[in-house]
Every structure is written in structure tokens, then in C-alpha cells.
Write a structure and sequence with these properties.
This is F5/8 type C domain-containing protein. The chain has 2 domains: 196 residues, Jelly Rolls (Sandwich), CATH 2.60.120; 129 residues, Galactose-binding domain-like (Jelly Rolls), CATH 2.60.120.260. Helices cover 4% and strands 34% of the residues. It has 3 helices and 21 strands. A hairpin with a 6-residue loop joins strand 17 and strand 18. The relative contact order is 0.12.
């Protein structure tokens, strides 16, 4: 062990949270570092890190995974918590437990990406985050030269100003993880994606078609207080426009085959012989209860009522052959109880074995009463035979007709 600067005593902190940086007069080569407190307030307690040389980024991209660090796995500049730092927590993300960066409203992040991603007219940014508040304007992405304009959530994902006319139709739900992607082509064409699905595109005539200032990119921070807290999983930046198929791959979305565009629509009401459910209420108690709790056709006197109030239950419809399917229609439970599904996801299959999510897992709004038929059209028609509807939220219990 050797003393830095011949045993120099460095001034340190005067409070609990301010980060104090001390640079050595001459950089040193080493691997291990020891700190020896000499004076303190209360008790010798500290949090510490090391200033190392920034290495050039690899592959024209930055990838921040928040594994207890603001550094990129592809090297290059680090993120800065210029407005206060959150904390790292283990949380359930999908079917895995992983580390996330938990931040409070206003504790955004920023980066000077110019040392890695030069001033390229084309770029793509991904933000994987769950916001605690999605009502009212909540900023996701900004740049010094954009001013108050940028990418926001206000129930829906959108570009501000509204005259940009770029807003996605999917409702953004608080506490749910979404992969938001914004890209810009070299000619100024802008695209928005949610979980890999293209949901808005255009050429907004603002801020040079939303060209980034490479030396000041801000995440989850708005100077006017239009912020939300949340849990951040990943931020990625590329110095090029990713194709739609590349975005799908990055977001781990496998889309169904694309169907034809229809001029007119009819409702196919599958017979019970063509319907299958994961479970239905009291199915192991009385066989004749099937007539009350497994009647999931549109217009039936009852409904399909899942065996348990849990996500993962489904009702399956067989359309008879592989064909274009443009959407689904649902009702609540007609008889006895006040029961209906308020949101669901959809999966489709051509063979009953290979299932793919519609809209990259989009959660569709559904019913608000027992009898109104609510139609939901897919952004892109799909080609399939079988359709599964998975309730995600409900009133009283997951019961529906479809």
C-alpha cells in the first residue's frame, strides 16, 4: 500500500448528502483504494466511490442497466443525478426479480452524450420505466434545445406541443413497466413505440424536428415540476434510427403475422364447442354450474367467470380457420352479480401452440358495466385462428362474454 500525494489530508464532507469530489494532483495507477477517516462529525461514517478515466463507448451506443451504478455497460459517459439521487431496490419486473433505480419526482437524470454519440441527425432512445403517476403531464425525455417541448406521459404517450399530432392510443397505467422508444431519422421523421409496437409517427415542425442537443439530454425531469417518481430499469441510446424490426427485437416483442386491412367488420360469435377457458368458477363442485359460470359467448344469459381472481386466467376462442382478425368485443356478466373486466391483453395463434401477444402486450381498456358491448380494434390486423383474452383488471371478479 502506498499513500496518495505523500499522505496528503483531503477535505471531505460538511453534511450527509452532498457529494464531494477530490482530484489527485497526479493520477495514479491502482486497483484497490483505502480511505482513512481522520476527522468526523458524530462517528466516522461515509459513502465513497472512485473517479476513473472514461473509456470510449463501443458500437455507437450507450446502455444503462442500473446495476448499482450510473455507468454504461458499453462504456462511455455516465449518467448524472444532478437534481438529487434515488436508491437502488430489488423489485419484481415481469417474471423476474431485478435491481431497479427508484427515484422521486424531480430526481431526473442527464447526460452529455456528445463524447460518445456525436451530433448525428439520426438517433434512437429507449426508456424502460414504471411511473408512479401518469395523470397530468409527466416528462420522459427532454433536451436543452427543446425547452418545454419533449416526450411526455399524460394518460397516453405523446409529444409536446400537441400540435405535433403524435399521441399513442394505449392508456399508460401507473406502476406498470413500459419500454418507451423515440427515434428520429436523418431527414427528421419521428416515431414513437410502446413495448416495441409502433404507435405514432410524423415529422413535427418543432425544434428542427426534435433534433437532440448531444451535450444535454435529460430523462424524467422537467423544470416546471411536471415530474413523476418511479422505478427505472434501463436507458439506451443509439446514434442511428433503429428500424421497426430492430425496436421489436430490443423490446423482446414477437409480433403475430400481419393480416389484411378490412373495409367492414362483423362479429364472429364462436359456439361453445369452439371455446376453451383456463378455469371457471366452482367447476370442481357441481358439474351443472357450468351453465352459470362458463357461458362466455356474446349475448349469453350469464358469462365466463374465472375460477380465481388472478392474472393469468383466460378465455379462448377458435375462429374456425386462419384468417384476418381485427379486434375483439366484450361484455360483462349478465346475470346475478355486478361483474365485468376493465382491462385485458390478447394473444393469438394459428395452430394453438405458438402464441403471440397482440400489440406487444398492449393492455386494452374494456367494460364499465354488465351489458354494453365494447369493441377494441388492434393497431394492426393480425392473421390467426385462435384468440385468448387475459383479464388484467376487473370489477368484483374476472367475468366476461367475448
Amino acid at each position: 500500500w502506498r499513500s496518495v500525494a505523500c499522505g496528503r489530508v483531503f477535505d471531505a464532507n460538511v453534511n450527509r448528502n452532498t457529494k464531494v469530489k477530490n482530484w489527485f494532483h497526479e493520477p495514479v495507477h491502482g486497483r484497490y483504494i483505502r480511505f482513512y477517516p481522520l476527522t468526523w462529525q458524530g462517528h466516522p461514517s461515509m459513502r465513497a466511490g472512485v473517479l476513473v478515466c472514461e473509456r470510449p463507448c463501443v458500437g455507437g451506443k450507450l446502455d444503462f442497466k442500473f446495476g448499482m451504478s450510473f455507468m454504461s455497460s458499453s462504456l462511455g459517459p455516465a449518467l448524472e443525478a444532478s437534481w438529487g439521487e434515488g436508491e437502488y431496490l430489488e423489485k419484481q419486473v415481469g417474471d423476474k426479480t431485478r435491481m431497479v433505480y427508484n427515484f422521486r419526482p424531480g430526481e431526473g437524470l442527464q447526460i452529455d452524450q456528445g463524447r460518445c454519440l456525436k451530433a448525428s441527425p439520426a438517433w434512437t432512445i429507449l426508456i424502460d420505466v414504471a411511473l408512479t403517476d401518469t395523470k397530468g403531464y409527466r416528462r420522459l425525455l427532454g433536451s436543452q434545445n427543446w425547452g418545454d417541448y419533449g416526450l411526455y406521459v399524460n394518460k397516453y404517450l405523446m409529444l409536446i406541443p400537441k400540435n405535433s399530432k403524435m399521441m399513442c392510443k394505449e392508456v399508460i397505467r401507473p406502476g406498470k413497466y413500459y419500454r418507451y422508444v423515440m427515434s428520429r431519422s436523418a431527414t427528421g421523421d419521428v416515431k414513437l413505440y410502446i413495448n416495441g409496437e409502433l404507435c405514432a409517427s410524423g415529422k413535427p415542425p418543432y425544434k428542427n424536428n426534435f433534433q437532440l442537443d448531444p451535450h444535454n439530454v435529460m430523462f424524467l425531469r422537467d423544470d416546471s415540476g411536471e415530474n413523476s417518481g418511479g422505478d427505472l430499469v434501463n436507458i439506451r441510446l443509439w446514434n442511428k434510427e433503429l428500424s421497426a424490426s430492430d425496436v421489436e427485437a430490443v423490446c423482446q416483442c414477437t409480433r403475430p403475422d400481419k393480416g389484411e386491412t378490412c373495409k367492414n367488420f362483423v362479429v364472429y360469435n364462436a359456439p361453445y364447442s369452439k371455446m376453451h377457458v383456463s378455469t371457471y368458477w366452482q367447476q370442481h363442485v357441481k358439474a351443472d354450474w357450468k351453465k352459470w359460470y362458463n357461458q362466455g359467448r356474446i349475448g349469453s344469459p350469464s358469462a365466463w367467470c374465472a375460477g380465481k381472481n388472478r392474472i393469468g386466467e383466460y378465455i379462448q376462442l377458435d375462429s374456425g380457420k386462419v384468417q384476418t382478425i381485427s379486434g375483439v368485443v366484450t361484455q360483462g356478466r349478465r346475470d346475478r352479480g355486478q361483474q365485468w373486466v376493465t382491462s385485458y391483453t390478447v394473444q393469438v395463434s394459428s395452430d394453438g401452440a405458438d402464441w403471440r401477444q397482440v400489440g406487444c402486450g398492449r393492455e386494452f381498456d374494456a367494460n364499465s358495466d354488465r351489458n354494453t358491448k365494447v369493441r377494441k380494434y388492434f393497431n394492426t390486423p393480425v392473421k390467426a385462428r385462435y384468440v385468448r383474452i387475459y383479464p388484467h383488471s376487473w370489477y368484483w371478479g374476472p367475468g366476461l362474454r367475448a
